[in-house]
Amino acid sequence: MRVVQKYGGTSVGSVERIRAVAQRCLATQRRGHEVVVIVSAMAGETNRLLARARAIAPEPDERECGVIAATGEQVSVGLLALAIQALGGKAQSFLGHQVRVLTDSAFARARIRDVDGARITRALSEGTIAIVAGFQGTDEHGNITTLGRGGSDTSGVAVAAALKADVCEIYTDVDGVYTADPSVCPDARKIERISDEEMLELASLGAKVLQIRSVELGMKHGVRIHVRSSFNDNPGTWVVPEEGPMEEVLVAGVTCARDEAKITVLDVPDLPGVAAAMFKPLAEVGVVVDTLVQNLGADGRADVTFTVPRGDLKRAVATLKAECRDLVKGGVQADDSYAKVSVVGVGMRSHAGVATRMFELLAAEGINIAMISTSEIKISCVIEAKYAELAVRILHAGFGLGQPPAGTRPKAARPRRATPRARSRAPR
Amino acid sequence: MRVVQKYGGTSVGSVERIRAVAQRCLATQRRGHEVVVIVSAMAGETNRLLARARAIAPEPDERECGVIAATGEQVSVGLLALAIQALGGKAQSFLGHQVRVLTDSAFARARIRDVDGARITRALSEGTIAIVAGFQGTDEHGNITTLGRGGSDTSGVAVAAALKADVCEIYTDVDGVYTADPSVCPDARKIERISDEEMLELASLGAKVLQIRSVELGMKHGVRIHVRSSFNDNPGTWVVPEEGPMEEVLVAGVTCARDEAKITVLDVPDLPGVAAAMFKPLAEVGVVVDTLVQNLGADGRADVTFTVPRGDLKRAVATLKAECRDLVKGGVQADDSYAKVSVVGVGMRSHAGVATRMFELLAAEGINIAMISTSEIKISCVIEAKYAELAVRILHAGFGLGQPPAGTRPKAARPRRATPRARSRAPR
To answer: What pTM was computed for the model?
Structure first.
């Protein structure tokens, strides 16, 4: 087998941890596998480097920030190569431009265009463990680019796809994907097997275990992802294409995005193009608008409410007032203490009533729902931030996530490789 | 003018220092010059990174060490680019592989083969200050290489040569090259103008102000080097081709290499090839043999004495005993407390008596000379380490170096560019 292992910052956070990772890599190789390792910067290192950059320039240039931040992973790959060699193994480090991981030129949030696995394949054929710097790539001009927070997950999956690896193991400091954040729900349960679409929703709704783009990339290329802990040998969570046996689980997990802010623009004319006129200037200053509702009045006017990340609130309000003077003259209300709690599950496709149950559970505890947004497999409610933990616990218990599902999801000991994958979207 | 400025670790050792360097770069540009900057890692950073590597592996692989160590300069170039931008200037960083600085594959002590200045020239033509990472290059396979301690000096001179720069300013934490180490000789004087050959001898004999290879490279390509302080605007020391007006200075400076060890191999047959038989295995384990004397006995046998760096003493003795068992059976004596004190000056070419004067000065203070080595422009004496500072002071005073030379060396305000340089070696 060809195994890609990605280790996050806490997994390589100290000399001892790096040695432990080296041992795991060698153990994998001794079982007869070809091993490619993607590593993040040591825990805290990226923040330390970016703090240095900001000490020089409050809003530093993204190209130069990338040059600085990419050194975190560069140190990690060198140290891990040394650790494997010190244990008698063969290892060689590869940087983004050496692999090479070709990206576009969006410096701080570059997207991978192509991965050339030739140098890695050559190393593997010589029995060498190839250690690849996560988070970084190079654009067509040879500039260093970085992939954004959590980008090493995406590096791992992209390399796994390019090398047609049999599995991409994402090592982290938790045992896998949980039905809710265990620090909020003590009875949260590790999910043995989760569909890639559920994982995508969870990742986009606040679960930090995998970068969204890595899940998208895994879906696109049929990469089998196994999220597991580098601190023990327990099996973790397999992210798998949606297949037959999982339909009986209604809700896979509960997640929560804190740090939401709510903006209401009052008394806006209810005409086509009004929303675009407001959201275009926001997009131009990099504010991502999330959940949106529009309350139509009797007089052909409406109140438009939407959420933005809390850190962007000031900028969003200032931009609206500067760029949409006519639209906002009815007034703008801003409130920065909201959270978005979501339940996610592919079972919702075939079962009605999840939304109703969710609203009932929240209402029973007196939690007011400010806004609602839904997709085929998730329901999100924007609520006051102070109720966030309570809501997660209520929903986790109310949907019975603390108990193991009654034999509905088979163990993922030998997940099949599905290429090409046919995902059934037909109602069941 | 096209100006290359190289800043050492203390010159970029803090946020404040980096800002000061940025200001200096911009001031140079405002005077109408094209500015290329080479920077070292922040002071202490390279040691910190290598300590991390050694915490993982006591004798770390040189390729991976280079990958780790090169991040020091990578952070520096990014930070300096940000600092220049924060002051309103245009700047862009370049790493060794981006320039590119092509080297051989001797990872920790690579030699520059070629510098491709095209990307830098393009940046300069756009009014951008080009900031190049010192100390690092890339081999033909795209591996990262490093140039050894002080390698950023060599990067600076190599880039200056490739770009046909009008001057290469080497910024450091001292005002220039001194007649002796000012911490040993309080009356040591800054040299305004030193010949490149004297500089080469001083650099190879313990003066740390410039890496030897940078001086060699400067001589080869006719690069005008100006060693000066980044902490003030004083003119420093110009390293210039040997030309007419400097012949009247007998001795330019006194320098001292501490950390010498002396090995004597007793009772060796005095036959051709014996020295080679001993020194080949030493070279193979990377021990550089320095000063050497051979005392011939009456019976066709000899004692061979030579010096090695103190840190290599154990390895040298062990290698001799293992590889040259027959030659060393007369016994090996090792002593690790020696120093080599040297006087350097092109004036020695045309004046006899410098050696005699040096021996007299040392003898007058009761300092015993263990070994002597000479070249056309220097005399070195190996003495007991405890006398090192005393010897430097005696020689500095004895050769009258505390007083400015009596108008013999003209000021270097407008050094001529000598390309190609014709250096007169005729006796005067």
So the answer is: 0.83
